[in-house]
Amino acid sequence: MLRSALRAVSTRRPASAADADDGAVAVEFALVLPILVLFLFGILQFGLFFFRIQGMQAVALEGARGGSVGLTVQEITARIQASLTVPVSYADLDIQVLLVNTTTATVVTNIDAKAASPAELATAPCEGIVDADEHVLRVELTIDPSLQEYQVIIPVWGTLGINYGVVGSYACENTA
Known about the structure:
The protein has 176 residues and is α+β, with helices and mostly antiparallel strands. It has one domain (18-171). It contains 4 helices and 6 strands, in the order αααββαββββ. Helix 2 runs antiparallel to helix 3 (73-83). The longest helix has 52 residues, at 17-68.
């Protein structure tokens, strides 16, 4: 009987190194998890930011292209609204239409498309320009960074109010 008891004690396995490391693995995971969450959500949030910026850039170029061939400011803003496919609300966009003389580096026309009068909306910035190669139509789109739906929110890090601002430029075509 004593012999069977000794055999039972001697056949008992000693604690393995893996059993001793179970607690250390849990602690290491708890230390690394916030960093992994930070990276994961940072990648997602910045990916959405760059997606919006790229879409806004394409829309600004579309508006500038239309304006460079003689569209009115109202038609430019309608084209911007129709082309907007990214998760950005048209109501949140600030739209500036500028005609710039590249020779003298001066702004010839600057129209805030959302606050423009009906007469300003009916103007075609590039129409009647004789020296079209010296003029560039710029469409600037911006979003107020304080609007919560456009802020970059990363857990553990916090909220980043990043400026959404893009410019689309095209040389005026000779529409005189």
